[in-house]
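Lecture notes, continued. The same structure-token format from the folding unit now serves as the input rather than the output. Read the line below as a description of shape only.
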């Protein structure tokens, strides 16, 4: 996969995030990447947060370099992270505060949490 162009424009209309399938709102900054995959040029559009979380969780490390990171792996990795970090053995389910969120809310929550862990480590 070759990245031809990467930009973070402000959305002038609503877009759909290709990682979490959530809405990128009008006026929200998002990531637009123009890629060549298998000789085909296409645009990849996603939340900045979704890309950050993918980087933070190292998803790019194990994806296929020819095709980049797929939405499938992204969503599996998010599920796995929540399960690993927030599974409650008493209820045999993920903790209540992690239930009923949209994927995008989960992504923001994970980023928050990773930030917090980082600052703990620094002090
Ligand atoms: Zn997203």
């Amino acid at each position: 996969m070759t990245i031809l162009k990467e930009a973070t424009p402000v959305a002038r209309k609503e877009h759909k995030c290709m990682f979490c399938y959530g809405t990128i709102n009008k006026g929200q900054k998002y990531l637009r990447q123009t890629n060549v995959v298998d000789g085909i040029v296409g645009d990849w559009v996603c939340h900045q947060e979704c890309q950050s979380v993918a980087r933070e969780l190292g998803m790019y490390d194990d994806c296929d370099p020819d095709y980049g990171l797929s939405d499938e792996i992204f969503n599996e990795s998010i599920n796995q992270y929540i399960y690993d970090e927030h599974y409650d053995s008493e209820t045999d389910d993920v903790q209540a505060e992690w239930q009923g969120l949209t994927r995008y809310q989960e992504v923001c929550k994970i980023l928050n949490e990773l930030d917090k862990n980082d600052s703990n480590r620094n002090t």
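Point for the exam: The pocket of zinc ion is lined by residues 17, 19-20, 22, 46-47, 50, 104 (CB under 6 Å).
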